[in-house]
Amino acid sequence: MQDKVEERSLVNVLNRLRKDGYKYDFKVGQDGRLCTMEERETYFTPDQVRIVDHYRFEGESDPDDMSILYALETKSGLKGTISNSYGPYADENVDTFLKQVEDLGKNLDKKDK
């Protein structure tokens, strides 16, 4: 991945990730499964997704205007991104899904040792 110091804006990070093959925009549906905005027929559960990287952003004029961008890869090889806000504007479905993905990753690390 590109040096994070150079990538101060969400647009710059998205452009870099697109160049690196992260072309899909993911979302989490009301049923708690991940899908792409482009192909809504294919769904992914937390055990089928890996968080490759994440980037945090803070609004210049309002520190409460914070968001996070995740670079994701599915077991089927799709690469894309999903973003979420912090605080009262956060999407609870996205938070829950990504927390499950993170927890699965921690468990996998323990099994490998």
What does this structure look like?
The radius of gyration is 14 Å and the shape is globular. Helix content is 27%, strand content 32%. It has a 6-stranded mixed sheet with strand order 3-2-1-6-5-4, with helices on both faces. The chain has 113 residues and is α+β, with helices and mostly antiparallel strands. Strand 5 and strand 6 form a beta hairpin. The protein has one domain.
Features:
disordered N terminus, 113 residues, 6 strands, single chain, disordered C terminus, six-stranded mixed beta sheet, 2 helices, 32% strand, alpha+beta, globular
Compact description:
By secondary structure, the protein is of the alpha+beta class. 27% of the residues lie in helices and 32% in strands.
Strand and helix map with partners:
Elements: H1 10-19, E1 24-28, E2 34-36, E3 43-44, E4 49-58, E5 66-74, E6 79-85, H2 92-112
Parallel strand pairs: 1-6
Antiparallel strand pairs: 1-2, 2-3, 4-5, 5-6
Q: Cα-atom Rg, whole angstroms? A: 14 Å
Task: Give the helix tally.
Answer: 2
Portion in strands: 25-35%
Number of domains: 1
Q: Shape from CA axes?
A: globular
* SSE series: HEEEEEEH
Write out the strand line-up for the largest beta sheet, numbering strands in chain order.
3-2-1-6-5-4
Largest sheet: 6 strands, mixed
**Helix fraction bin:** 25-40%
Terminal Cα span:
26 Å
Q: Give me the count of strands.
A: 6
Runs in which pLDDT lies below 50 for 5 or more consecutive residues are 1-6, 109-113
Q: Give the mean pLDDT.
A: 84
Pairing-aware structural class of the strands and helices?
Answer: alpha+beta
